[in-house]
Amino acid sequence: MKGKLARIVLVAGIIALLFGVECLGDGYKSVILEKISTSLYKNSLLVSKMPGHLIVQIAAGNKLFFGMDQTADQTKSRLVYRENQGGTDRQMAEAENESQLYSSGDASAVAGENLAQVQTMGGGSGTAAYVNKLRENKDVSYLWNHFYIIDSTTSVTKKLFNVEQMLSRNMTLKQKQGKKQILIYHTHGASEAFCDSRKGEEADSVVGVGMELAKELEKNGYSVYHDKTKYDLINGAIDRSKAYNTSLEGIQKIMQENPDIQVTIDLHRDSVGKNKHTYTMIDGKKTAIVMFFNGMSRSKSGKIDYLFNPNLEANLSFSLQLKCHAMETFEGFTKPIYLKGYRYNLHVAERALLVELGNENNTVEEAKNAASPLAKVIADVLKGEVTGR
């Protein structure tokens, strides 16, 4: 009798809890359901007896998808929230001040995966359909959810992402014969190579890929200054902690000596962990995938004043226009744009880029194959030769 009564009380309590959750606003509901789902997952309740994501779908109304990911040292597992979390469209519309922020929790954990796959729509319509829809709806929530990964170190507000202004902002750059207009450099030039790179061979490193990108941009009519300095090689040893400080000093000097430089490209190679060999096919060639990267100069709670970037909105517009044009031109060539909390020297120019080209599991050939399509995307935007303009 006591056992039966206890079960009745438990069921009644669960019903009351679910009813209470249902009556809450969508934002609170999402938080509570996420915590319930996470707890169930961590404690293996029902999950061990059900398909991996089914219990989460039941608990959270099909809005969440969880999976296990490995940390950098491959020794610990953690729960990954695989979608940009946040509120409803109504909540996004209300995010007008610094106290109402949007961030993606552990979205950074999936940055290294081939997220270009996320952007392939059903029915063979391709990634261009996403761009067309964005141009039609100009909706910031749609933009955040389909074009960005928002790292847990940062946050975004609606006022920073005026879709119409971002897509229409004039980022063109008139060509000047004999004048260096684009700077390519490598903050991590000494420490980033590829799976078959020959040790000590500059041509096989990210610097070598920069050489190819410079050649391809020159073919498209823009003169390039390629800075091959390995800014993470300090006193004969790799020191990435000071690399951005040293690269800033270097590129500022170069830009002072070459005042026609209006585009800066900090070219990197992504790091994703073992057994993630991702590529796309362009002109019959295996081609490494590209990710544009923006530093937001923002923490979770708002602006980072000492990392002020007067060119932030221009930076965001430039990378978005490049991303959209790439999606329309080369299927599967780009991942979502990655947003992170710091500045990464992107304040030096309106058209400042940080590009992650390929990863440690790509071959040198695959990485260099990406130079031509990347150069075309950049040159087309600079020339104004893009769809929707």
Describe this protein's structure:
The protein is of the alpha/beta class and 389 residues long. The chain has twelve helices and 15 strands. 42% of the residues are buried. About 22% of the residues have low confidence. It has a seven-stranded mixed β-sheet, with helices on both faces. A two-stranded antiparallel ribbon has the order 1-2. It has a two-stranded antiparallel sheet with strand order 6-7. Helix content is 37%, strand content 16%. Helix 2 packs antiparallel against helix 3, helix 5 packs across helix 10 and helix 8 packs across helix 12.
Radius of gyration: 23 Å
Order of adjacent strands in the largest pleated sheet = 3-14-11-15-8-4-5
Low-confidence stretches: 40-125
What is the 3D shape? globular
**Tally of strands:** 15
Strand content: 15-25%
Overall mean pLDDT score? 79
C-alpha end-to-end distance? 74 Å
What class would the helix/strand composition place it in? alpha/beta
Q: Helix share of residues?
A: 25-40%
Question: Could you give the order of the helices and strands?
Answer: HHHEEHHHEHEHEEEHEEEEEEHEEHH
* Biggest sheet architecture: 7 strands, mixed
**Count of discrete alpha- or pi-helical segments spanning 4 or more residues:** 12
